[in-house]
Amino acid sequence: METERILSRPRTRRKVLLMGRSGAGKTSMRSIIFANYIPRETRRLGATIDVEHSQIRFLGDLMLSLWDCGGQDVFLDSYLDAQRDNIFSEVQVLIYVFDIMSTDVERDVYYFNKVIRCLHDASADANVYCLFHKVDLVPEHQRQAVFEERQRRVKESVDTISLKCFATSIWDETLYKAWSFMICGLIPQLSKLDDALLKFCEISEGDEVVLFERATFLVISHATLHSHSDVHRFEKISNIVKRFKLSCNKNQSHFHSLELRNSQFLAIIENFTSYTCVLYVSYRSDIQATAVKLNIQCAKTLFEQILGSDMESQV
Amino acid sequence: MDRDTHSLKATVSSYTKYAKDLGPYSVPEEEKVKGNVITESSLSALSQSSKASPSSTNKCNIALGGLARSGKTSIHSVIFHKISPHETLFLESTGRIVKHVVSHSPFCQLELWDLPPELLQSDSESSPSLEDIVSICSALIFVLDTTTETPDETLQLLHQTIVRCYNVNPQIHMEVFIHKTDVLSDEQKLSFQREIQEHVDGELRDIGLDRVVSQVSYRLTSIFDHSIYEAFSQVLEKLHPQTCLLERLLDTFVGYSGIENAFLFDAVSKLVVATDSSPVHGNDFELCSDMIEVAIDISGIYSFGNPRNHTKEDSIQDSHPVGEESFILDHWNISSSCGYFFQDSSCWCTIRLGNGIVLHMKSVGHYLCLVLMARGEILDSNWGLVGYNIRVFSECLSKVIKSTRCCDA
Ligand SMILES: Nc1nc2c(ncn2[C@@H]2O[C@H](COP(=O)(O)OP(=O)(O)OP(=O)(O)O)[C@@H](O)[C@H]2O)c(=O)[nH]1
Ligand SMILES: Nc1nc2c(ncn2[C@@H]2O[C@H](COP(=O)(O)OP(=O)(O)O)[C@@H](O)[C@H]2O)c(=O)[nH]1
Ligand SMILES: [Mg+2]
Ligand SMILES: [Mg+2]
């Protein structure tokens, strides 16, 4: 099973820079999303020295080259100067992390500005995302206001480029929301996936079908036939299932599938293609779980094809 | 257990009827069922015995004491109010006695007294006094902060509190929660516990209170992992007169259904009410309780999504906290979404793991749910039987609950 995955080499490489001042939480985030840390374990992380590179295979065909850039001033100064070409060339995504509790906003913005300027010179097309991190430390009723205020200051300082901002915390689903959004933008087959998923949802008489990347449990795509009042539900499910997966790992096992039913709905989570999991939800009480599972099996080949198709088209 | 052919026949036919309703499950052949179905009569003997014990009353008073910022309010907020551990950062210090009334399942009817630190000081003149409260409590949980900067003062207070509690209520269970252990390594935890226990035991013996030594239990806890749930479950199991009976019910259930472990959870708090007596491996406990959480969370999202059915979220109303003179009374109500979830007795969840183990959860009414662990191949050929046995189990459980209610009245 594993050999098959290794044989098909990923063709799409993406360079992702993770920057921000020391202690902002960069290494914590990536450890939770990509290295199966639980939030509590991030307390043991030490400051990152210089740049830590990691190669992350995502959905089989996409290779993320993640540069976690240690944020102490000496390192930042060096990125902006001596290492400038190496760091900022051929960047597709810059993720800039601010500690929302920071007391030195002035200096945060100063560095951010310099980084943006270097990025603009070397990789003008890169997407820039700003994460205002550790929102859990702000009392809930103030969160929105603090976030907007910080966002305004950062945006004012670089009015030439468009920024997408998120308020995040390692303690809840906001982390998954931000990362799902940022990573999804890199998937070339996204619109094809969306279409296929919608079709699958209709054929299998589901009300909602969601596709997750299997290792990170980031949301890739979803098909929704009825509007649902909870707009944060996908990242919540990412967070819920990922936590449970880690709990299984602790028990020397791994999560395989879930089936949940009450008088209102049926939900099934199963491994889908080699790199994805699928969540199927139906509100109909006459839907048979076995039939749904059979449908999921049948759809597999099609989705494997879509996820692998980018490879052929680029050859 | 009697297995005469007559009763077997009756159960097989009713079981087959049930299996048909289950739909997706395969219907096993009749011979697999032989001798495996729990008969009403085999369990009724057990539920009878509970009627015999008139002392079975469900309401438990538990006092929570300790120094300021030791984590008392955090503990019950995390377990019973479902706030996330990291949110306890915002808790303000508790200036008065607060009584929290917890009424979940019939086995989780508690009155928790969150005591302000001053009350434990010997010169405290507040009314009600520590003695007043402890005299009605079946347990006192002393929360001891391992990160404290004043360990001597803490130990001194612990010793003094134990003696005072024992003097007014010699029956009281004293539970020392050695708390915030998430900051310690495994060796540190054990040496901490050993040190504290030796110290307290020594002091108690010095003043001739040898018999109190066995009344004090020590548990390592943290709200950031599962340890707080295990510790609190153990306290509850100790206080409940029905624990033994429930354990026997579960043993019978497990034996007859070919499964490995069965846990009965108070679904809302995720505290374990009872387990069967076979050994529990490693983190199985935690896994089962995490499973309940997954089921609650996903149900919370999709139970109200159904466009064809307008179940209003606010159908369960919250009652307002009632203020009283000498202390604050906090009536906490089960939040609407998970409240709905556990009143829905048709709810079940199955999770399959890579190692062939299957977890199956079924709500059995009264805010209780049963979680089973079994090998997949065994469960998959016996779903109908297990389903039937779960039903018999829930009926017996209802009888136990009813009979204890009668005793209370
Ligand atoms: N409260 C809270 N703490 C966080 C959060 N994210 C990270 N932390 C904590 O912040 C501290 C620093 O995190 P790191 O990930 O090491 O910071 P970094 O940005 O990698 O720092 P450098 O490597 O020096 O650049 C750790 O102790 C984390 O536990 C969050 O969302 N909320
Ligand atoms: N590290 C850690 N901190 C905890 C734990 N339990 C509580 N705390 C923290 O201890 C502080 C005081 O808690 P609180 O419940 O108000 O203490 P109380 O005065 O005894 O009621 C809070 O900031 C909590 O976040 C724990 O298990 N581990
Ligand atoms: Mg780092
Ligand atoms: Mg308090």
From TrEMBL, chain A:
<dbReference type="Pfam" id="PF04670">
    <property type="entry name" value="Gtr1_RagA"/>
</dbReference>
<dbReference type="GO" id="GO:0010507">
    <property type="term" value="P:negative regulation of autophagy"/>
</dbReference>
<dbReference type="InterPro" id="IPR027417">
    <property type="entry name" value="P-loop_NTPase"/>
</dbReference>
<dbReference type="GO" id="GO:0005634">
    <property type="term" value="C:nucleus"/>
</dbReference>
<keyword id="KW-0547">Nucleotide-binding</keyword>
<dbReference type="GO" id="GO:0003924">
    <property type="term" value="F:GTPase activity"/>
</dbReference>
<comment type="similarity">
    <text>Belongs to the GTR/RAG GTP-binding protein family.</text>
</comment>
<dbReference type="GO" id="GO:0009267">
    <property type="term" value="P:cellular response to starvation"/>
</dbReference>
<protein>
    <submittedName>
        <fullName>Ras-related GTP-binding protein isoform 1</fullName>
    </submittedName>
</protein>
<dbReference type="GO" id="GO:1904263">
    <property type="term" value="P:positive regulation of TORC1 signaling"/>
</dbReference>
<keyword id="KW-0342">GTP-binding</keyword>
<dbReference type="GO" id="GO:0005525">
    <property type="term" value="F:GTP binding"/>
</dbReference>
<keyword id="KW-0963">Cytoplasm</keyword>
<dbReference type="GO" id="GO:1990131">
    <property type="term" value="C:Gtr1-Gtr2 GTPase complex"/>
</dbReference>
<dbReference type="InterPro" id="IPR006762">
    <property type="entry name" value="Gtr1_RagA"/>
</dbReference>
<dbReference type="InterPro" id="IPR039397">
    <property type="entry name" value="RagA/B"/>
</dbReference>
<dbReference type="GO" id="GO:0005764">
    <property type="term" value="C:lysosome"/>
</dbReference>
UniProtKB/TrEMBL annotation, chain B:
<dbReference type="InterPro" id="IPR006762">
    <property type="entry name" value="Gtr1_RagA"/>
</dbReference>
<dbReference type="GO" id="GO:0010507">
    <property type="term" value="P:negative regulation of autophagy"/>
</dbReference>
<dbReference type="GO" id="GO:1904263">
    <property type="term" value="P:positive regulation of TORC1 signaling"/>
</dbReference>
<dbReference type="InterPro" id="IPR027417">
    <property type="entry name" value="P-loop_NTPase"/>
</dbReference>
<dbReference type="GO" id="GO:0003924">
    <property type="term" value="F:GTPase activity"/>
</dbReference>
<protein>
    <submittedName>
        <fullName>Ras-related GTP-binding protein</fullName>
    </submittedName>
</protein>
<dbReference type="GO" id="GO:0009267">
    <property type="term" value="P:cellular response to starvation"/>
</dbReference>
<comment type="similarity">
    <text>Belongs to the GTR/RAG GTP-binding protein family.</text>
</comment>
<dbReference type="GO" id="GO:0005764">
    <property type="term" value="C:lysosome"/>
</dbReference>
<keyword id="KW-0547">Nucleotide-binding</keyword>
<dbReference type="GO" id="GO:1990131">
    <property type="term" value="C:Gtr1-Gtr2 GTPase complex"/>
</dbReference>
<dbReference type="Pfam" id="PF04670">
    <property type="entry name" value="Gtr1_RagA"/>
</dbReference>
<keyword id="KW-0342">GTP-binding</keyword>
<dbReference type="GO" id="GO:0005634">
    <property type="term" value="C:nucleus"/>
</dbReference>
<dbReference type="GO" id="GO:0005525">
    <property type="term" value="F:GTP binding"/>
</dbReference>
